[in-house]
């Protein structure tokens, strides 16, 4: 889950800080806010219902091989990606607005 949210949150945070104030910035930050606000147990249940029961893409229970780990990892990564994408965005906007960066431009 950590690898997944790192691979998603850092590029999304950088992307939103580069395109600050545009549609992509607002859309990613809004989706991140929704992801942070969702209870993890509810999100896990919805992903389990749609990705395991209805489509059969993932196993529902057990721990036999790596396919049993994917669905819980996706669940944890969604919530954490929303949080860290917003964190990277905020910190990068703060650094980009500092005087030494403006002088370097």
Describe this structure in words.
This protein has 105 residues and is mostly helical. The protein has one domain (2-104). Helix content is 79%, strand content 0%. The protein starts with a helix and ends with a helix.
As an assembly, this protein is single chain
Q: Please state the overall shape, judged from the principal axes of the Cα atoms.
A: elongated
Count up the helices: 5
Order of helices and strands: HHHHH
Gyration radius, to the nearest Å? Answer: 17 Å
Mean pLDDT: 87
Please identify the structural class as seen in this structure.
mainly alpha
> What is the total tally of β strands?
0
The portion of residues assigned to helices is: over 70%
Percentage of β-strand residues:
under 5%
> How far apart, in Å, are the first and last alpha carbons?
37 Å
Largest sheet: none
Number of separate structural domains = 1
Unreliable runs = none
Task: Name the descriptors.
79% helix, 0% strand, 5 helices, 105 residues, mainly alpha
Short description:
The protein is built from 5 helices and no strands.
